[in-house]
Write a structure and sequence with these properties.
- About 30% of the residues lie in helices and about 0% in strands.
- It contains 1 helix and no strands.
- It is elongated.
- The N and C termini lie far apart (about 60 Å).
Length: about 90
């Protein structure tokens, strides 16, 4: 494990590949293999879902969609300008 760039970070431990229903019970067994008490650190278990845009923060996915669509639009405009009035 290397030093994190930020004081708070999350590390992906595993993935649940099957679909879970509303009343499903998830059992997790935890072991303390790395002591964080010496420097006042904390450990937390986070269960999260992902969508087609990515993880819990949609900004990066939306930024990719916006930049990609604006690049295609600019490319089409430049192509049309070149075809309509060549040098």
């Amino acid at each position: 494990m290397h030093t994190s760039a930020l004081p708070s970070f999350q590390k992906l431990y595993g993935r649940i590949e099957t679909d879970l229903d509303v009343d499903d019970v998830v059992v997790v067994h935890l072991m303390n293999n790395y002591n964080t008490f010496s420097f006042g650190g904390k450990k937390k278990l986070v269960l999260s879902t992902t969508s087609w845009l990515g993880g819990k923060n949609d900004f990066l996915g939306l930024a990719y969609v916006f930049i990609g669509s604006s690049s295609v639009t600019v490319a089409i405009v430049i192509t049309l300008l070149h075809l309509l009035s060549p040098r």
